Amino acid sequence: MIYKLEIENFYSVRDRQVIDLTVGRRVPEEPGRLVQLHTGSEDRAPRVIAIYGANASGKSNVLRTIAFLSWFVQYSFEHKARTLLPYQKFLTAEQEAAPTRLSITFAGLEDPLKEGTTATCPYVYTVELSPRSGNGDMVLSESLHYRPRDAARMVRVFERNAAGHVKAAAWVGLGRELSVLENILRPDASVISTLGQLNNQLALSFMQSANAIDTNILLTRFEQNDLDLLTGYARSPELLNALNRDIRRIDLGVDEIQILAENGAPVASFTHAGLDRPIRMPFESHGTQQFVRIYPTIYRALALGGVAAIDELDVAIHPSVLPEILRWFSDPDRNPHGAQLWMSSHAVSLLDGLLKEEVLICEKGTDGASEIYGLGDIKGIRRDENFLQNYVGGVYGGVPSIG
Questions:
Q1: Which of 215, 222, 334, 348 shows the greatest Cβ crowding within 10 Å of its Cβ?
Q2: Domain match, 142 and 53 both
Q3: What domain of life (predicted)?
Q4: CB-CB contact of 16 with 101 (8 Å)
Q5: Are 61 and 13 spatial neighbours (Cβ–Cβ below 8 Å)?
Q6: 355 & 372 share domain
Q7: Is residue 305 part of a domain?
Q8: What pTM, to 2 d.p., does this model score?
Q9: For residue range 220-255, what is the model confidence (pLDDT) as tens digits?
Q10: For 93-123, what is each residue's pLDDT tens digit?
């Protein structure tokens, strides 16, 4: 469960933006939609976050923040040294010469080293990246803090400075690993990613959590192709069975999808009622192809209790099907592990069924900088308002300006 993001000097986000999804105890109950932040918390956060705004307003960059942080803690150690990390600053000379700061607050295991533990508590992970010089990036600071139930405030898990010196809590279990860590820690790599190479159990636990974030936002040039996609289906009968179950349920006109081997490669074969022969994937409708491509991201999040961060979900899913996809995340049978969906969308019809706490709006000023705010942050917004009508009418901002 991610419930707070702070973004500064990252793509179109020039000035510090704070996305706080915390919902206080006075807000009416919405079972399955507004859920407990962590064990013992009286505050809640939404399981579905829908991001609206005009084209190029910065919607994708909210999702990129999540995708980049997930990549950084998992793979930055493997990134080629002295090359730029896969992100952009706000594209002015002034901001290129300024640091980038990203922070994420989430619910994590209170005792991640104890097998079988389920109690959760708040964690805050923060990284600050250096100005850009063309000779690679550098971490100015990196930290992970948490607040277990017996603590009155956030306490350090680890802190790292620009010189690469690391301070860690005793329970992290570094011991002799600390000197090894500081010797191999590159200026542009995460402490967590580096500790993972040393098989540190805490780092491996957090890398596993980061791996439960699935996204269609591409940070590097290595885009998944249909061969990779179909290989994944071929290797996972459970995934293919789930796809067939859901594709029949939402009535895309497909009776069954089979993954066949042809010339040593997997191909998808679509059987339709009323047709004598199956159809191959390249000849299927665009909407059906896109559903097949995006489905593993949704399935994996629901199966693991992870986060699905999907850019332009309405491009992949027909507008009449979208409400059903969102419903999966509030259904305890479909979402038993508490998965969360972050999505950008232009499908304004969804606003009729969303809570104000589930909606973020991005608006880009004439200076090119994005502002991000929640619908619930706007003073005077009532729960029974016609969000669709008011959004389209420009009451909340985030709509294209024509003329």
A1: 215
A2: yes
A3: Bacteria
A4: yes
A5: yes
A6: yes
A7: no
A8: 0.94
A9: 544 568 899 999 999 999 999 999 999 998 877 899
A10: 999 999 999 999 999 999 999 888 899 999 9
